[in-house]
């Protein structure tokens, strides 16, 4: 149990240990070039030069916790989070390169988007019931869950649907399976839209 908790906390920290990031300055180059995979697998082709995402099926990476980003790449590579393109992207990177890319995106400023609905800053009752305990009052993330605010509604809804059928199964506790399966199809759409309209914040440092 203790090992599982420590693994979860590490995955949601804001930055990996400096000893694990000996070549951190190269993270941007890998993200721009695709590393061994070449330009076809460059992170920026879907997630943007500033890590802003594409507003549809590629989420924002800028300002997300480095530990979380690294874990997602490992899970893509190992098949715990299925996605054909991301599987190949992750497999083209070795463990050191994944740390470098994760630290690069974690250090980027969170893009400020015009037109986000200010009223959405107030948590919806559905969000409070289903998500707030792990993702925080303002959806900026906690040691138990990553930031969700400002992510694309389509992306968030797709992740919830993947959790519902256990297509995605990489949280270690199966909590997301339980949470997602308790939501109706309409609730999946509602909470995803709500989160997409909330202003994003940088992940809180975990010290």
TrEMBL record:
Residues 118-199 form the Cytochrome c domain. One of its GO terms (molecular function) is metal ion binding. Keywords: Heme, Iron, Metal-binding. It holds the Pfam family Cytochrom_C. The keyword Iron applies. PANTHER family: BLL4483 PROTEIN, CBB3-TYPE CYTOCHROME C OXIDASE SUBUNIT FIXP. This is Cytochrome c. It comes from Hydrogenophaga intermedia. The lineage of its organism: Bacteria, Pseudomonadati, Pseudomonadota, Betaproteobacteria, Burkholderiales.
